[in-house]
């Protein structure tokens, strides 16, 4: 298959996967809430968050293996095979430890507090939560800690599209099979059993398929040299810390909410966050193709084009992300009420805070890509640590008073902290590499983000004036996008105009 066909197939799989993920989230939540009340729904959501947190240490080695496989290239099949075998050994150990810890949590009854289930909720819910937790952890321990290394290796040897299709199948099965079972009247125990069996089957089929494709190109898990598993484990140690902190920011909010306020608030928070994540998924689809190009430009030290790539991402944020964020804020309330069968309370300020966090995270995409392209795990770990501390402190202060809204504000605070720190580190790297730092474009982008934040707040505060707020905000965004376009390096701007003229003709 040619490079163009591989890229086209990979992009198609990514777009379809994002669409399938969004549809799955909408349908599964509506099916579950058609039968369950907020407390069991919140407990079910928290189970997934706790399992993700427990499995995230293994992701550090997965990230290292993914980068190393690309560095080796598809022709060094023996080296990839030995690394794959070594990583699977370490992954199996990780999975065993995770499951033993999970058994201890259930044996001592700690899962009740961890999932935000009060004693008066009943033994049935406690048993169902324990079964859901252990079955989800079992799948994660087997396939997440061992099979995931096949997924991480696939793109490096030419099977990116296939890996994306299988990922879509796994995520769809994970969400939809238990949701359909619940819709048909299953208890939490029954839903957990259906989820375990279906996910186990799909993951087994995926591993068999990938092993056959790998074998066709000369890659198969091999017994590693003595000491290689421990060497890889040590090399990925900063990745462990970075992933733990990153997941603490993403999934830890749900766990802390469950501990502080109970499972019901977790359901409200998670469902509202799903609406805001629509913007995140759309933005990732648009921006992901740009990020590898940016990393390539940094490697080649093409200073003018790097500055242009930064500004183009910020223009996209002003032209695409900002309007989308405001429209989601406007229609989010009606969608939420219909979606949740009126069982969960909608808070416009919670949605506004979550969308604000997503919008500001887009502002840091190009600077984050620059730091990651230098493999600066020390800087990334420091950024994640400080932003995570800010998030936790804010949650401890606000959640007891504001409930789920406190979690939204805390998540927004964490994203704003990350934005400031990663921009600072990116500035240091541009100076070190003698690149051009687009200071004026950065200021215009920050002004655009502030305008979007103000628009979201106005819509939440005065819903009756929402369309006026949208029009005023978008007029300001248009002016800022035009200023950003004019700040593009002349070479980049002329090339972009030429391409646009070609499209028109």
Explain what this protein looks like in three dimensions.
It is a single chain. This protein is an all-alpha fold. The chain has helices at residues 3-33, 38-72, 77-107, 111-114, 123-153, 160-183, 188-216, 228-235, 237-250, 252-261, 263-287, 290-299, 303-339, 348-363, 365-373, 377-402, 404-432, 439-461, 466-486, 490-504. Helix 3 packs across helix 8 (228-235), helix 6 runs antiparallel to helix 7 and helix 15 (365-373) crosses helix 17. The radius of gyration is 23 Å and the shape is globular. The model has no long low-confidence stretch (mean pLDDT 83).
Question: What are the main properties of this structure?
Answer:
20 helices, mainly alpha, 0% strand, 505 residues
Short overview:
With 505 residues, this protein is mostly helical. It has 20 helices and no strands.
Number of helices: 20
Which series of helices and strands comes N to C?
A: HHHHHHHHHHHHHHHHHHHH
Tell me roughly what share of residues is in helical segments: over 70%
How many β strands by DSSP?
0
Looking at the structure, what is the overall shape? Answer: globular
Estimate the strand proportion.
Answer: under 5%
Distance, first to last CA: 31 Å
Any idea what the radius of gyration is?
Answer: 23 Å
Low-confidence stretches: none
Main sheet?
none
User: What structural category do the secondary elements indicate?
Assistant: mainly alpha
């Amino acid at each position: 298959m040619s490079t163009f066909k591989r890229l086209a197939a990979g992009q198609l799989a990514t777009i379809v996967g994002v669409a399938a993920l969004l549809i799955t989230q909408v349908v599964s939540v509506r099916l579950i809430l058609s039968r369950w009340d907020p407390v069991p729904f919140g407990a079910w959501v928290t189970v997934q968050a706790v399992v993700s947190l427990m499995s995230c240490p293994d992701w550090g080695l997965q990230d290292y293996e993914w980068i190393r496989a690309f560095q080796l290239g598809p022709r060094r099949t023996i080296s990839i095979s030995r690394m794959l075998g070594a990583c699977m050994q370490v992954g199996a150990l990780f999975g065993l430890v995770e499951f033993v810890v999970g058994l201890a949590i259930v044996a001592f009854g700690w899962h009740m507090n961890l999932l935000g289930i009060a004693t008066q909720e009943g033994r049935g819910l406690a048993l169902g939560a324990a079964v859901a937790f252990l079955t989800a952890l079992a799948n994660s321990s087997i396939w997440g800690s061992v099979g995931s290394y096949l997924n991480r290796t696939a793109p490096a040897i030419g099977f990116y599209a296939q890996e994306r299709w299988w990922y879509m199948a796994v995520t769809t099965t994970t969400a939809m099979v238990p949701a359909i079972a619940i819709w048909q009247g299953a208890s939490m125990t029954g839903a957990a059993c259906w989820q375990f069996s279906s996910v186990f089957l799909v993951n087994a089929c995926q591993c068999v398929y990938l092993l056959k494709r790998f074998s066709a190109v000369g890659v198969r898990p091999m017994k590693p040299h003595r000491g290689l598993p421990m060497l890889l484990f040590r090399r990925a140690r900063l990745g462990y810390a970075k992933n733990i902190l990153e997941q603490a920011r993403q999934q830890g909010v749900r766990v802390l909410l469950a501990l502080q306020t109970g499972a019901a608030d977790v359901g409200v928070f998670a469902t509202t966050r799903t609406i805001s994540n629509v913007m995140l998924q759309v933005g990732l689809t648009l921006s992901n193709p740009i990020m590898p190009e940016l990393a390539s430009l940094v490697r080649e030290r093409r200073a003018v084009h790097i500055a242009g790539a930064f500004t183009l991402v910020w223009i996209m944020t002003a032209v695409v992300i900002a309007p989308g964020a405001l429209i989601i804020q406007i229609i989010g309330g009606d969608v939420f009420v219909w979606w949740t069968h009126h069982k969960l309370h909608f808070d416009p300020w919670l949605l506004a805070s979550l969308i604000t966090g997503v919008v500001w995270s887009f502002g840091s995409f190009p600077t984050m890509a620059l730091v990651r392209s230098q493999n600066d795990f020390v800087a990334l770990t420091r950024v994640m640590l400080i932003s995570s501390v800010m998030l936790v402190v804010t949650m401890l202060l606000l959640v007891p008073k504001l409930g789920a809204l406190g979690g939204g504000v805390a998540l927004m605070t964490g994203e704003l902290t990350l934005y400031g720190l990663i921009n600072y580190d990116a500035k240091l790297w541009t100076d070190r590499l003698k690149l051009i730092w687009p200071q004026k474009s950065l200021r215009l982008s920050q002004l655009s983000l502030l305008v979007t934040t103000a628009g979201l707040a106005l819509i939440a505060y005065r819903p009756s004036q929402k369309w006026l707020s949208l029009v005023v905000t978008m007029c300001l965004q248009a002016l800022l996008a035009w200023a950003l376009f004019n700040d593009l390096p002349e070479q980049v701007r002329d090339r972009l105009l030429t391409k646009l003229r070609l499209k028109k003709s």
